[in-house]
Amino acid sequence: MSKFEHKKIMPRYSFIAIVMALVATGVVGKTLYIMTAKHDYWMEVAARQKKDSVSVKPNRGNILSCDGQLMASSLPKFRIYMDFKALSDAKNDSLWDANLDTICLQLSQIFPEKTAAAFKADLEEGRAKMSRHWPVWRQRIDFNTFSEVRSLPIFNMPFNKETATNDCIVRASYRSGFSVEEYNSRQRPFGSAAGRTVGDMYLGKDSARFGLELSYDSILRGKNGIIHRRKILNKWLDIMDTPPVDGADIVTTIDVGIQDLCERAVIDELKLINGNVGVAIVMEVKTGDIKAIVNMEKCADGEYREIKNHAVSDLLEPGSVFKTASIMVCLDDGKCDTTKRVETGGGVWPMYKRQMKDHNWRKGGYGTLTLPQTLHFSSNIGVSRIVDEYYHNQPDQFVEGIYRLGLADDLHIPLMGSSPAVIRKPFKDKRGKWTGNRWSDTALPWMSIGYETQVPPISTLTFYNAIANNGRMMKPRFVKQVVKNGEVIADYPPTVLHERIAKPETIKKIQTILEQVVSIGLGKKAGSKSFKVAGKTGTAQISHGTAGYHTGTMQYLLSFAGFFPANDPRYSCIVCIQKSGLPASGGGMSGVVFHHISEGILAQNLMLDVKESRDSTSILLPDVKDGNLTAANYVLNYLGFVPNNNWSGSYVDGNPVWGKAAQNGNKEISLSQQSQQSLGTIPDVVGMGARDAVYQIERRGVRVRLRGRGRVTKQSLEPGHQIKKGDICELLLEV
Asked: No. of H helices and E strands in the chain?
């Protein structure tokens, strides 16, 4: 490079370097200025453009029936509003005025309960007040309805604002003023079926109230996620920090079909007898699975609804269904056997200055009964005298026997309000007398027949289920699995509470006695002609606490607990009905409900021998018409019949063999081939079906007219008639 060029270029480089140095100095200076003097100002600006740690709710898991049907699921619900201040600020008032009539007309079509004029008056009132939160419709709407509203003029402008609260997501449009609040609403496709057991959520809140929703809330809820939001180009951009973990599904043991059957059976009986409360529980014998649980209570309007889970929370004196346990203790302790006889007199027996009465005391009582008969006829005197004879001086042994049977076990039912049975234990005072827990001489006799104790229906059923299961007591199971994305992530297998509640011989004796209660005793109405049923009736007066039993109208608890089929138990069931006044019968009322439930359940898979349906009017062979024998032979062979014939031919070949069919009583079908007339004469089609008869005649060029249906009984052109041009043959068909 020449010296001249060097001097010319260097000043330029120097100038550029100086300029860059000045710019860099300015940038550094400005940076320091922002970092110090303007620090607080720009931190406030940044805070307005960013939202940290915004909680994102997961999807709540579903509650499924035993066969995978939805019993509870989360679906979005919406509330819709207008912000008239935002509409005015966006200067869209004229657009609103132009479309108001159209909006109101279409709103009235979406919500027929309100006229277009009413919608217009309501919206104009909100606009006059310049309301920022005026409801377009005052109730929550589902997604489909929201989509229809969203498509209306003005309302269809895009949302440009979104905020999240603990309860809902709010979306709003600055231009139209239309805003929506989205809630996560819990829906039950089967309505109120097993409502107190499935549970419910607080309206508008992600918080469970009761039932399985509450007990398994941590599994169903999932885990919240965290996002932060930045405002870019006047729009919020969500940036995920921690994604939400959706809740898992729980698979219950409830069978929707059995549940519906039980609810209808209970409600029908409650309406018939004007009952107050109806409870029914169905349990699978081998597993302890609760297939149905019904808790119907009469409301002020006369309708029956599930208000409280009486099946797991009612601590009432069970009455005569408890007698089974009393007799089992005597048998299992070896105090007596089934040959034991007891005198019940005329139905009234003095018991330590009190009178024990049988239900038929006005009719003279039962006299002398065997031990099984005390249960067959539910004799208060018989059972109480047997128990008092062997345990009066050692009542603690009797109560220990009751505990050994599992009746007082805490079943740890996963439902709010559940409680174990309350069966008090006696103990001696310093003088050696059984006075503890207010124990008296009458305590044992009355406890033996179901008083002086409080046992919820679920505990009574678990006890009877153990009898059906040959002494093996299963824990009631409400949830089988926890499932997520089609995979089982937790399994809850059947749980055995007691391998054996009594000796095998005791269980066998009680099973036989309970079957006889239904076949020859007071439980006949619970039985079935199709299968054997075993169980025990119960009728007890309900105590009103300190007021006792005789306050106002007498209240009764009517029960029937048992299992079916008795020879191979599959299900156990208890039905409890609370009603006021007489008549009151455990067997005649609760037993009837048990009958309907048991027959309804087993009718679904009861297999009967087809031979039992045959009688003198039965048709055992199909009716075969004359005509195409190859087609008839093909169908008969497909149906499993082998006709007797003296010819051969294949239906597939398309060359039919024609003839007549005949039946030899109910034993066989005979197909006989007949020679065919020439194509110039009318064939004999009497006995044929319409299809074959028309084919045979019209293939000869003769038109056919049909009257009636069935097989041909008469033809207008006689067989052998010489065919002429224009002939018409009319066929009469009769069944």
From this structure: 21, 33
